[in-house]
Amino acid sequence: MRVLEIMGSLHRGGAETMIMNYYRAFDKKLCQMDFVIHARFPDDYCAEAENMGAHIIELERPGQIGAIRYIRILKDAILKNGPYEAVHIHTNHQAFLSIIAAKMAGIKKIVVHSHNTVFPKGTVFVNRLVMDLIPVTRIGCGEAAGKAFFGFHKFRIINNAIKTDKFSRTSNTDYKTIKQQRFGNKKVIGHIGRFNIQKNHDFIIELADDLRKENSNVIFALYGEGEREAEIQNKVEAMGLQDVVAFMGITSDAVTAYHTFDVFILPSKWEGFPVTLVESQLSDIRSLASDKISCECDLKAGLIDFVPLDVTTWTQKLEEILSHSDTEKKYVTADMTRKFDIDEQWKALYEIYTA
């Protein structure tokens, strides 16, 4: 069977990484994926997807060409590149357009995937209206994300699963030396996330400014890129924080990045299901997260704290974690990670496509 995944892009973001993890795990003899995207980025997943057999279909955004024309073009693309036994829609804001196009193309299995917990009211209203008229299968990356987009309708949860075993420390990698080379003897407070409003980098910069007054031996390592990167870099320079905040760019080796952190932070204003928090716990490092994030990502290993977005509170908590990081080691067990193990979870998504 062949499934069409409708994405904004195949940039190295949360939803994109999630579906690529499933695509890698799928038995390609059972199921192959194609992708509709609306933008390409350097170092995105497109080349890897094509190497695994996917067709990449590039379309203009609905905002560029208008809703009616977009529906027609997407319908034609589905008919031209198929046949598809399922269409899986990840573009939450314009999901209703893809639903209509898939229906017009004769697709019987239309899957709508909620990846977030905050949506404009108008977006939710229009999408729910269309989903009430056209039968779809609803899935969410977590309970909170599903309820935010689908309301009282039934939905299934498909976890943002990963290769859980790859985040364990390996005996043939000298993480201590790598950390020394990158950051010297400083305590490393790490963050991995796109530079956008959601990830709340302004809060991170305020936190860096406050914490350096208490602890001069810290550095904030920020991995990622995005539309607000230059703005945040300018803010760091204006506040004289160049020695406290390091811009690391996109990494293709998140495992090593986590193992150079003393603490991982995620002060997001909202999240669907941040797989970075699962990855940080699998790496056996402490994590500090915004209380706006669902506790569903807590593996119950005592490695994560959810804290209100108050700079003073976060500073105090980070000081506490950093001062005890060598004496209070806690570890994730296999039982805690099973529901996030892609080798087990890919079958659940395949069952949805074939049901």
Structural features, described:
The protein has 355 residues and is an alpha/beta fold. Helix content is 41%, strand content 17%. It contains 15 helices and 13 strands. A seven-stranded parallel sheet has the order 3-2-1-4-5-6-7, with helices on both faces. A six-stranded parallel sheet has the order 10-9-8-11-12-13, sandwiched between helices. α1 crosses α15 (342-354) and α5 packs parallel to α6. The mean pLDDT is 93.
Q: Top keywords for this entry?
A:
single chain; 355 residues; alpha/beta; 6-stranded parallel sheet
Instruction: Estimate the helix proportion, in percent.
Output: 40-55%
Query: In this structure, how is the largest beta sheet organized?
Result: 7 strands, parallel
Alpha-carbon distance between the two ends? 12 Å
Mean pLDDT: 93
Shape: globular
Q: State the secondary-structure class.
A: alpha/beta
Task: Count all strands and give the number.
Answer: 13
Helix segment tally:
15
Give unreliable regions as ranges. Answer: none
- What gyration radius follows from the Cα positions, in whole Å? 21 Å
Strand content: 15-25%
Physical arrangement of strands within the biggest beta sheet: 3-2-1-4-5-6-7
One letter per element, helices H and strands E, the order comes to EHEHEHHEHEHEHEHEHEHEHEHEEHHH
Subunit arrangement of the protein? single chain
